[in-house]
Amino acid sequence: MEETSISLKPCGIEESIIDLSQITLRPLHLSDLDDVMVWTTDEKVAKFCSWETHTTKDDGINYIERKINNNKNENKKVLWCKAICLNDHAIGFISLSSRSPHDKSRNKSAELGYVLGSKYWGRGIATYVVKQVVKVAFSELSYLERIEAMVDVENVGSQRVLEKAGFQKEGVLRKYVFLKGKSRDMVMFSVLVNDPKV
Ligand SMILES: CC(C)(COP(=O)(O)OP(=O)(O)OC[C@H]1O[C@@H](n2cnc3c(N)ncnc32)[C@H](O)[C@@H]1OP(=O)(O)O)[C@@H](O)C(=O)NCCC(=O)NCCS
User: H helices then E strands: how many in the chain?
Assistant: First the structure.
């Protein structure tokens, strides 16, 4: 934990102080279902995510099982993932995935993804966690040379998180992803293992 600043940002939610040293990362479990349902059923949270807003507990169970079982039925393989916790409640999730899971020697990059319950937005939590995860990833996954993140051009908050965490904006991939009925322009960000801020 490199910094323990306190952030108070208005986001249309009640103001409260969160000491960032209370934020922890740990594996996600099925017992986190009720906490996970809080944010996976929230349309604001799901807006830029690849998954649809959850409507049933089965959706939540499937979501957790996919994460625990390394997204077995999806193209990407989860390399590393953790629940973002406040007082041991899973208030979000962060992961690193590989696009070429079967060829570690050729793929020295990983894609970062993260999500946080809307009640906790605007308090510096995502920035704090992303900074830590970048450090941990480059040390635990020692073959990694690059961590990238693709963000919808309209997802201003997430772009700001990456900039503040030391990622470089590489450019816009036009109509790169078809998601939720629309082709979307995506901003590519990356951080390399030898970048000065890392
Ligand atoms: C994106 C997300 C993770 C940001 O989390 P967060 O904890 O609120 O981010 P932070 O508090 O660390 O904010 C970092 C910066 O972004 C700014 N920011 C956050 N949300 C913003 C928004 N909606 N619009 C404009 N700026 C925003 C903050 O003000 C802060 O900048 P500042 O310090 O210069 O003021 C969160 O909104 C989220 O989970 N969204 C839904 C899922 C998602 O979009 N995931 C990312 C997919 S790529």
Answer: 5, 9
Distance 104 CA to ligand 1 centre (A): 31
The span from the CA of 187 to the CA of 170, in Å, is 7
Confidence of residue 13 (pLDDT cuts 50, 70, 90): very low
Sign, Cα dihedral of 6, 88, 91, 101: positive
- Residue 140 CA to ligand 1 centre (angstroms): 26
Contacts of 8 (CB under 8 A, 6+ apart): 15, 17, 123
Burial class (CB in 10 A: 0-12, 13-18, 19+), 187: buried
CATH number at 43 reads 3.40.630.30
Residues 92-119 pLDDT 10s: 999 999 876 566 556 899 999 999 999 9
In which domain, by residue range, is 33 found?
18-144
Q: Using a 6 Å CB cutoff, which residues line ligand 1?
A: 9, 45, 48-49, 114-116, 121-127, 151, 155-158, 160-161, 164
> 109-116 and 89-98: which strand pairing?
antiparallel
In a domain? residue 182: no
